[in-house]
Amino acid sequence: MNTSSARQSHNNYSPNSYLNRNQHSQLIQQINNNSVNNETHNSFYRDVSPSEYGYHNLQQQQQPRPIPFQPTRVFTDNYLEDPARDKTPPKKQQYEHRIKQAEDRISHMLAQDDAHFKQLKDSLAKMGEGVQGEQMARELLDEKKTKEIKLAENNMNIELNIEKQNRRESEAKISKIIDERLYAIRLDLAKEKKIREEAQDHNYASFGDQIRRLQEDIELEAHLREENSQRFITQLGDEIGKFHDMISQERRIREDNHNIMVKTIQDTHQRVVMELNRDIAERRQNEENLLHLLEETCLRVERTVLSGN
Questions:
Q1: What domain of life does the UniProt record list for this protein's source (predicted)?
Q2: Which residues contact 67 (CB under 8 A, 6 or more apart)?
């Protein structure tokens, strides 16, 4: 029986009504039970927070208490018809108002949590997009560097082929010049030999003195020829030596140019490798920083969720 039924029973009670002892005791026990239930309900809402009430769905478990014997009370009309008591709102409406306030606070907290989780989700999505963009940029940079290295290798191969072709052409020109000079010298020697033989034949046909003088002239001519031949041979050796020196110098210049080109290529390769390694190290550092920030964000989210709960 609730409080309204008990009050209705009290309103029907008057000092002039004839109640036996049992009916009077039952009425007093109902009023006391209602007061005990109200105190238990108030203590439940006082000790349990709105979040615990909303999340755990606690239920009130009440056990009836034994009622000690009390003397008979006499309720007067003034007590039952007090204007101040009639103006006081019923306990049920107070409890419903408190429950509604608790539900409003719980709904507000849930809305705040949803907004916070949505913001964290958006932040994580933006971080994921940033990491994906960084990976795509790294792949594009690697592809670009690979193409540049291949292009540099192709250009170096073309330059080496051109240098080899120029060297072969230079060697062919030098060989051709040497062959032409040797052929001209051989022709001169052949002409000189022919002239000498004709002169000897003509001198042998002359008189004895002329033959002697011619013999002397021939000896002189032979000596001169030998000197000329020696001089020609010396000049030829000098020319050949000069050509050898020129060839050696060209070969040395070519080797120096080749070494310079190889060194330049190696330096370029080392510089490109160092730049690539530095870019890779920077990207790894950026990835580690992003992962560290992501872990810190996850830890903050977890701590926020735990603190909210």
A1: Eukaryota
A2: 29, 32, 33
pLDDT tens profile 27-36: 556 555 554 4
Name the amino acid, one letter, at 6: A
Only one residue has tokens 């709105």, namely 50
- Token output for 58: 């606690």
- Beta-sheet strands, E only, within 212-257: none
150-193 pLDDT, tens digit per residue, is: 898 888 889 889 988 988 898 888 888 988 988 988 898 998 88
Residue showing tokens 């030596």: 241
Beta carbons within 10 angstroms of residue 202's beta carbon:
11
143, 146, 152, 155: CA torsion to nearest 10: -80
Q: Give pTM, 2 decimals.
A: 0.23
Torsion (CA) 33, 38, 43, 46 in degrees, nearest 10: 170
* Phi, psi of 215, rounded to the nearest 5 degrees: -60, -40
Q: Is the dihedral of CA 185, 186, 192, 196 positive or negative?
A: positive
Q: Show the CA angle centred on residue 213, arms to residues 212 and 215, nearest 5°.
A: 60
Q: Ramachandran region of residue 57, left (φ > 0), alpha (ψ -120 to 50) or beta?
A: left
> Long-range contacts made by residues 270-275, C-beta under 8 angstroms, separation at least 24?
272/145, 272/148, 272/149, 275/145
Identity (one letter) of the amino acid at 254? Answer: R
SS (H, E, C) 220-232: HHHHHHHHHHHHH
Residue 234, φ and ψ in degrees, nearest 5: -65, -45
Extract the tokens encoding 84: 């101040």
Which amino acid is located at 42 in the chain? N
Residue 129, Cβ neighbours under 10 Å: how many?
10
CA torsion through residues 240, 243, 249, 253, sign: negative
